[in-house]
Design a protein that fits this description.
The protein is α+β, with helices and mostly antiparallel strands and 581 residues long. 22% of the residues lie in helices and 28% in strands. Strand 4 (54-63) and strand 5 (66-73) form a beta hairpin.
């Protein structure tokens, strides 16, 4: 026998006791006790008419609360696909198919499980996958598992395998050519099997007495009859594919249910259930936000000062000497800039009555998650492009405290423009952008290999470029990134990118975000007694600015370009000093 308690792909409850299922039946304790340790097929959605639907097998384990299963996928294509679905958490429900039922008043007392199925929606609410093994296999003392019914987190267990020893059965010899009697067959059973038979006989007698007293019409079975009858009572916790198929043929799902003898049809159409524990957010893609927040350089001080000496002019060059002539001093400019912090916040409130009345999920934790999400998005937006609000708005994030990279181009000191000329169509504009970005790369002086943050539409236009034969010029974003000489390309929602720009090429390690002790992100709670309201505040006090000259290439639309000139006034915070040595 396989060591299934260690070498399994997933495990969970095949069925739970004392829970009313959607077909109106309730499985009682030890209804399938005789199958403890038994191996059964594992299929997809109870579809038995095609061998390709067999995904593997499962071992059953009778427990106090129901039947537990250990599932093992086979190496077939459907088996591998199903394994991927389970590992990703796309399928979490399990269902059983059983026959030879003994039941009374809708309670299943005994039956035989013929197979277990992976299903999209099971009839028994407790029949769910609990543990999924990852592809990174475990060692002898530690195994990695993911718990599916709780928030995803890595747990470790070191439960040792228990060896199962089977006691040898005593064989009863029967003379050749002699047909076995019922007594012969019964004598061959183990003590455990005989106990099951006694229990079945007792249940059958109880059914008979209950039927005589109450008129109950439970089905009766010969306990020694193992052959499946054509009209045998069957328990199939599936989506009842046969009934649905017959409904299509008959043109009426209701008539199909009635033809199959289904009582209490309303159980098959339960009330709608919410698919997630909490309401889903309708939000912009947050991938770029995580990239920005992880990429910027964090400092433990909020006042950022940078100083540079410009030695690119002719005055700073080394000079040739002629005997008898005066040696000239070198002249160069010192540039200095300081950036101070600003408080950025988000505030919410809830009526305390609502906090108490909402019991389906933790509404406070849900709301705090939204606050942090939106604060991070606003900061990432301010770092790259500015918050987009008018300068006169009281809510604007001051661009002298959080300096947007795309606007930090005065005197071409920290960021500089790569002007993109609009073409006759989208393809021509995309080609112009690629050309402008590559040509501007020679002036880049930032750290290492930069990243391109670009609007979604322009990224799509570049990926759709084709040669004269209709072949894609860039099959993947990685190929396009190589062409543009950047480490990676990060797509930004178009509504975030200002109208005058396409994007920016920058290594965010050159963008410093500073916050003093106490100025990092903090969450505050308060209760308003007068209005019975719970109030929440999340805020940070920080500054942000590029600190390296020529460390960002701003891809700007040429039509909105303002070309800097030699007489341009330096931005606020700059001090130029001339020094001679």
């Amino acid at each position: 026998m396989e060591d299934y308690k260690h070498n399994y792909d997933f495990c969970g409850w095949a069925t739970k006791n004392n829970i009313k299922c959607s077909d109106g039946r309730t499985i009682m304790k030890d209804a399938f006790i005789q199958q403890d340790g038994e191996k059964v097929p594992m299929v997809w959605n109870h579809q038995h008419n095609d061998p390709l639907n067999t995904l593997g097998h499962a071992y059953l384990e009778n427990r106090e609360d129901g039947v537990y299963m250990y599932g093992i996928f086979n190496d077939s294509v459907p088996g591998k696909q199903a394994k991927t679905l389970v590992q990703h958490g796309d399928v979490t429900s399990v269902s059983i198919y059983a026959n030879q039922l003994q039941q009374r008043s809708g309670n299943v007392l005994h039956g035989v499980i013929r197979e277990v199925s992976l299903v999209l929606a099971g009839a028994n609410p407790g029949a769910r996958i609990e543990v999924v093994h990852s592809d990174d296999y475990w060692d002898d003392e530690e195994e990695s598992v993911l718990f599916m019914n709780e928030p995803l987190e890595l747990s470790h267990a070191d439960e040792e395998a228990k060896e199962v020893k089977e006691e040898p059965k005593e064989e009863t010899k029967v003379p050749e050519n002699k047909e076995k009697t019922v007594q012969d067959v019964f004598d061959e059973l183990t003590e455990e099997q005989k106990n099951v038979v006694y229990a079945l006989i007792g249940a059958a007698l109880e059914d008979k007495e209950a039927g005589e007293d109450e008129g109950d019409e439970d089905m009766k079975h010969n306990v020694f009859d193992n052959e499946e009858k054509e009209n045998e009572d069957v328990l199939s916790h599936s989506e009842m594919m046969d009934i649905i198929n017959d409904g299509k043929r008959m043109g009426s799902l209701k008539e199909s249910f009635l033809q199959h003898g289904i009582e209490n049809i309303e159980y098959l159409f339960p009330e709608a259930k919410q698919v997630t524990n909490t309401p889903d957010w309708i939000q912009r893609d947050q991938t770029w936000v995580r990239k920005v927040m992880a990429g910027v350089h964090h400092t433990p001080f909020s006042r950022i000062k940078s100083m540079h000496a410009d030695i690119t002019g002719d005055e700073a060059r080394a000079l040739g000497y002629i005997k008898g002539k005066l040696k000239k001093e070198e002249v160069f400019a010192l540039l200095k800039r300081s950036t101070t912090p600003q408080t950025i916040y988000k505030k919410q409130k809830l009526d305390r009555d609502d906090v108490i009345d909402i019991t389906d999920f933790d509404v406070v934790a849900w709301l705090k998650g939204e606050m942090r999400l939106m604060l991070d998005e606003e900061l990432a937006r301010a770092f790259l492009f500015g918050d987009g609000r008018q300068a006169s708005s009281d809510d604007k994030i001051d661009e002298m405290h959080i300096r947007p990279i795309v606007k930090d181009t005065q005197a071409n000191l920290y960021a500089f423009y790569a002007n993109v000329t609009a073409g006759a169509d989208a393809d021509e504009t995309a080609k112009n952008l690629i050309r402008a970005a590559i040509k501007a790369r020679k002036d880049y002086r930032g750290s290492g290999s930069p990243t391109l943050f670009i609007g979604a539409d322009m990224l799509s236009d570049m990926l759709l470029l084709e040669d004269g034969f209709g072949h894609s010029l860039y099959k993947t974003e990685a190929e396009l990134a190589t062409k543009l000489r950047v480490k990676e390309i990060v797509e930004v929602p178009d509504e975030i990118v200002p109208a005058d720009f396409y994007g920016v090429i920058v290594n965010l390690n050159d963008y410093y975000v500073g916050a003093d002790k106490g100025g990092a992100v903090n969450m505050f709670d308060d209760f308003d007694i007068d209005y019975n309201q719970q109030k929440y505040l999340i805020e940070t006090r920080c500054s942000g600015a590029l600190v390296k000259p020529k460390s960002a290439i701003v891809l700007k639309k040429a039509a909105s370009e303002v070309t800097p000139n030699d007489n341009e006034v330096l931005p606020e915070g700059y001090v130029i000093q001339q020094e001679r040595e």
